[in-house]
Amino acid sequence: MVNTVNVALDAMGGDNAPKETVKGAVDAVRDQKNVCVHLVGRREAIEAELSKYDYPKESILITEASEIIEMGEPPVMAIRKKRDSSIVVALNLVKDGKCDAFVSAGSTGAVLAGGQLLVGRIKGVERAPLAPLIPTAEGVSLLVDCGANVDARPSHLVQFAKMGSAYMKYAMGIDNPRVALLNIGTEEEKGNALVKETYPLLTACTDINFTGSIEARDIPQGGADVIVCDAFAGNVALKMYEGVGKVLLEKMKEAMMTSLKTKLGAMLIKDSLKSTLKKFDAHQYGGAPLLGLKGLVVKTHGSAKAGEVRNSIIQCITFKEQDVNGKIKEYLDL
Amino acid sequence: MVNTVNVALDAMGGDNAPKETVKGAVDAVRDQKNVCVHLVGRREAIEAELSKYDYPKESILITEASEIIEMGEPPVMAIRKKRDSSIVVALNLVKDGKCDAFVSAGSTGAVLAGGQLLVGRIKGVERAPLAPLIPTAEGVSLLVDCGANVDARPSHLVQFAKMGSAYMKYAMGIDNPRVALLNIGTEEEKGNALVKETYPLLTACTDINFTGSIEARDIPQGGADVIVCDAFAGNVALKMYEGVGKVLLEKMKEAMMTSLKTKLGAMLIKDSLKSTLKKFDAHQYGGAPLLGLKGLVVKTHGSAKAGEVRNSIIQCITFKEQDVNGKIKEYLDL
To answer: What CATH class does B129-283 carry?
Structure first.
């Protein structure tokens, strides 16, 4: 157990801010004693939301930030110009050591750029990957990288494999996490130039449990705990995962609403179906960490509601308590 | 209407050969008068299957091939060594002009390699992409390339866009098909080096309907008719599409079998759900064409049953009748 973990929360970020961000903060501090949430944003709006709840007052602080970075803004420019935005102010709290972690449902680009520019990478980390957890038939897998490193080099992917192993082992409690390289076949000679160069480097790593290539088809089954790829491939995999799920569920709902008979059937299977599909709801696992930074930066879905915000805050406690950054340094020999 | 279309069918390829391949051929010639299927493989096994059916005898011929290329064999080596395999013998029927098209549910690698080596590319075509049709909420989209061109160049992707447009317009009857570039965001500055170089080249094409970037998330909704990408990204998108669908449907079935109540509910929605999900069954759309070859080569799923084989054969008739290869040459100024 460590002392209080200080989490800076972008109160203004995401589709449902500040209503759901503030509620998520309240839920988190009600559940966990050892966390203090710094709500960053427009004080008036935040206070209006906070006034709805009872909560331990010493566990939620407000830091004023007058500006908001919008979803469409060019990220680097926005970080440089909007010095008083909730994202920049919150990231500076981490940079200055006042907070251990930052959680945002705001612009992914701004969070990625700001994390790198303001908090900065651990010395020796070549690239900081965004690593969302995706639900599988067996639990959850980490997809590293889905962020900004679209033209990655083999040495980056090797670091992703090690950082991902540290995260899954210490933050998620998975013993000896299986690491696989995203590929278009499982034979060693398959793949593009990046994958072919990376494969033998991963095989040579004695400190991770590299199990070889994985096809995207086997990811939803839970074929690996850590899936390593460049951000272009990772983004395609992640977005396709989300897109197919969404369309299939929409179509299923339509099918259940076609007649009185199907509506009755839907009522009978509703509870069972919901509890099954809940396991596939990415929102319940908290946000995607940006690995390899000096502090923890967590990006939650833009559509995050209180539950996901709460889970993302609690995720930061584990990260700090388990000293995941210290473990990442050990894995990387830094 | 053209004269008879001659289709060489790999009778021995796929998980269900020769039973389902032969049945698919019989179904096709029963349905369509202007096709002649050349069943290529072991005569005895083929004749045993054929003897089960009534069909117009002049519409099905057998060409003996004693060998079979197995799924795991290194493709190029297999094509070179197994001269009497069903794939090589059938491809030579196309090469020699005895057949217009080749359909196989066998080894994808061998079909791709054999198509290029034996049938050969249309002069001026830089790469021959494998272009599966994937079902969407609105119909069906062509994903070009999911084949072997993992380290594609921008000029390849431009040709893929044009060949895909020709295919969707003339083989699938989609007017002014929307072409999109698979990307990790919709802004022009997004993407990896390949995408950034390709984007302005596609914008400059006046003969296709280029609509910009598409995120993988929007593919299942039917966001574009032709989706252009390198084979690595395409394969990741395709396999993830298949993998998520499979796991979600498995989980749904489990949820419907948990109790008597859910089983009753399942009975009530079964028909409606089946007809909805049928639209998302890739098997019903026939196989994936390998575009830009001198003849047509179509790869169907390894798990193809008679229906998919039949549809793939009928697909070849349209391809020939609509002179898709002639249209591809026009699009490419060849």
So the answer is: alpha beta
